[in-house]
Amino acid sequence: MTNSKRRSGLTVASALLGGVLVLSACSGSEEAVGSDGGGNDSSQTQVDEAAAQKTSEAQIEITPKDGSTNASINNSATVTVSEGTLTEVTMTTADGTAVEGEISADGTSWKPSAQLERSTRYKIAVSAEDSEGLEAHENASFTTVSPDNSFIGTFTPDDGTTVGVGMPVSITFDKAISNQADVQKGITVSTSSGQEVVCHWFNANRMDCRPDEYWQEGATVTLKLALDGVEGAEGVYGVQQKTVSFTIGRNQVTYVDAQTKQMKVTQDGKVVKTIPISAGSPENKTYEGQMVISEKFKETRMNGATVGFTDDDGEGEYDIKDVPHAMRLTTSGTFVHGNYWAADSIFGSVNTSHGCVGLNDTKGADDPETEGAWFYDNSIIGDVVVVQNTGDKTVAPDNGLNGWNMSWEQWKAGSAV
Fold it and tell me: Which of 199, 209, 325, 356 is catalytic?
């Protein structure tokens, strides 16, 4: 009888370690401890207390919880401990690849050293000890959000760049965003100049942000993406958590007049250079409006077939493989570029292009004395080119980075917040 009672007493002590008195399926006896004259309540209490003292007081917590899916690639895999310090944290992918991480200086937390991968299963094993050196252990596994269940935004301009006064922050999402207000609330654009910045949705995949007037010269603009876990559409969550900044350069705005066939380059409102140009022909007028330089190419190929200029055989009306000093103004194919194939006499006198603004240049883009080379060398991404008196319609605000062609009231009306 005494052995039976001892086995039953140890079972109770083991159950107490979990903090709750439970029935054990393998106790070997149904007798209650101390329920007859053969037991000793005082002795059993001492046994229970001794067993409890052997349990570590360290409390380990792993985020996310074991078995989680659609976990964040930024904020998951955090490990913390209370009433103790971490001694070892091991994190691996399902195939055993180790994930680098670091325990904090005070030993109470751990996190990965880099962003996690999407659609990946991770395992974490943690050891800690309390002030008495007693060890505690915890394990968890989780799967990060998949590409199908997440969205990202590709943004321009890039971090650390210097851009012109017309450069908007433009974000293109890889999934259609239906919860536009929630996503917009997770995006902040601010400027050291103090200008109010408002974001405008052109469609479900694109949002641009700008102030009322052009950015102030020398200002620093900061874009903060706090989209991790934000639901952009049903079952589709953001994964970005990023801050970038860029600088506004000198205030350069260029005015192209298709009637006078002259281009005036201004800085801080003063004309610094006048250049003869050839704009779109009467059959292929150049768009009017405020356009922003979005790309620069020292040389590039221009094929009419890519922008709808084809002959009866379906071939491009032109195919020039080495157009010099090309600067994009619209997504649809409007450029300011050098022109070496036309006679020098057309510049300043005749509009002959298919819609671009042409400047005198040389083949090979290797003569720095040409007008095409000068304008290329003195322009940066984000500079504004205002095209006037072509007789064509104003460029669509979303055809390139050209939201300046909307009034401030129209622009603010496209905000979701």
Answer: 356
> For domain 59-145, which architecture applies?
Sandwich (2.60)
209: annotated active-site residue = no
For residue 352, give Cα distances in angstroms to 175, 254, 257, 282, 286.
Answer: 41, 20, 14, 8, 11
- On whether the pTM is more than 0.85, the answer is no
**Hey, what CATH topology would domain 252-404 get?**
L,D-transpeptidase catalytic domain-like (2.40.440)
* Interacting residues of 173 by C-beta distance below 8 A, sequence separation 6+: 151, 152, 153, 154, 183, 204, 205, 206, 207, 232
The Cα–Cα gap between 169 and 110 comes to: 35
pLDDT in tens, 239-260: 999 999 999 999 999 999 999 9
**Whether 26 is catalytic:** no
Catalytic residue, chosen from 200, 325, 337, 354, is 337
Identify the sign of the CA torsion 372, 377, 378, 380.
Answer: positive
CB 277 within 8 A of CB 240: no
